[in-house]
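Subject: Predicted fold for Beta-glucuronidase, 601 residues

User T.R. writes:
Posting the sequence so we have a shared reference for the thread.
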Amino acid sequence: MLKPRSTATRELVNLDGIWRFALDTDAGGEPWARVLPGTLDVAVPASYNDQFVDARVRDHVGWVYYQRTVRVPRGWAGERVVLRLDAATHEGRVHVDDTLVAEHVGGYTPFEAELTDLVRPGGEFRLTVGVCNELTNTSIPPGTITVARNGRRTQTYLHDFYNYAGLARSVWLYSTPRTRVDDIVITTGVADGAGLVDYRVAYSGEARVRATVLDATGAEVAAGTGDEGSLRIEGVRLWQPGAAYLYRLRVELLDGDTVLDRYEEPFGVRTVEVRGREFLINGEPFYFTGFGRHEDTPVRGKGHDDAYLVHDFQLMEWIGANSFRTSHYPYAEEVLEFADRHGIVVIDETAAVGLNLGVQGGLTGRPTTPTFSPDTCNDETRAAHAQHIRELIARDKNHPSVVMWCIANEPASNEDGAREYFEPLVELARELDPTRPLTYAIVLFATFRNDQVIDLFDVVSLNRYYGWYVASGDLATAEDYLRQDLRGWIDRVDKPIMMTEYGADTQAGLHSVWDQPWTEEYQTAFLEMHHRVFDEFPQFVGEQIWNFADFQTSKGVHRVDGNKKGVFTRDRRPKSTAFALRARWKAIGCRKPGSAPDETN
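User M.O. replies:
I've generated the structure tokens; pasting them so everyone works from the same file.
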């Protein structure tokens, strides 16, 4: 699915702004058939939960409805008219006037509907979008709904971030010609100093295909014809971490000399490879520095915000981070486009978080239930997971910043049934994209002794909390645990090893001269201990701290106003450790600490 763009043959209208809003309990039957009742308005894009002061809205479990009037531009006569939602968390249904035009399950990937036969250029229509936040054992991510005696419904889930819901990303109305480009796949390589660009175009209608590569100045550097082919860019400029360079592939559908449709897809020429225990970008060893992050800001919840996007990338540049993981779901496409332009490396993750019932047992003391069973994570869950992988790769396949797919966060890879669950998903991901490595973030319970699926993947990505959840306040013992853990993985596998989560909750402004958890000094000492151990192992290829910034979580005694493991506060103020990290990461760059500098740069 191509992202809507304004081109010589396409136009788009942004539908963001203020919409009418109602809970299903207030909207009545068939709310799309009339103007929504009540006086509530809501902003799009933004999660709805924190926009209101009514707890009944924030804690609602079930469907909510968004509605607005849309006018089709009168100049779109003879064109296809398409409605696109960048996301609806976690399920969406779309009505145009009284007609259901789209349904989609999955809260972080786009979906669309053609409206050509339902609307007329210059006319108006009533657009109603239902959004459901329910999570069950067969959804991704999973959850459980309980109903109290008074009928009140409560949602529980195993992921440690708030279940924000709604239209958190943009809504678009756009036009295309009847004969149009439907999809473009670009893969790149390098040979003898030239860039190799393989492309494949899917299109509808009868036409001749012309493909042209344009450099950053707009100059033509390669061209070909046909719906698939290989182009060669002499003297290519590579997309490099920290030094992005983007080309554009212009695809035109032609009838003689007449251009029927034109679409341009940005791309970068770069290679990614796992070789032994090294992670290589453009043939050079790459060392990840950065964060797990969240789409999370005050009031907006998971709503995309361009100002926060710019500021967050400025903070990552300031601190010397070269990468991040889209924990724990695909981020807005604007985030990846920004990473493409600024040379930030991305590990792109599905929304498969919480596939581990052992976490619940560990926190509550209750006996654990098997994660993989007919009554828990089952064949239906895996089918939903497979669809998430398909949609993630379909959306993000052409982004040069994306160097690895992470298909799950902290699954129960130590439990029986894990291999049967994951092996088909790994095969699917490799079939969809054989060019990028695969990983999954490994939970603390899954060790080098009992993990059952690591051989299926390319990179060992560890989530470990020695010194916080284990040996809290005892960094000497935590250091010993961490060192033994890394040695165990190194002895087991001949693969790159990195840390995708490690961190300690820290209350900004809390200080102590002792190793006191929650203080800023403890967070700094905690991270310094980890870095000391990391630097001992040449097989180690990266450190991504949990988390970039504090973020909101569900209510409960385990969190006070959210998760405080951020290096920055939720409003993006640096904690003390940010300055120590800046010194380390600015010195590292993209290479393993202690490795020889690249004389060619």
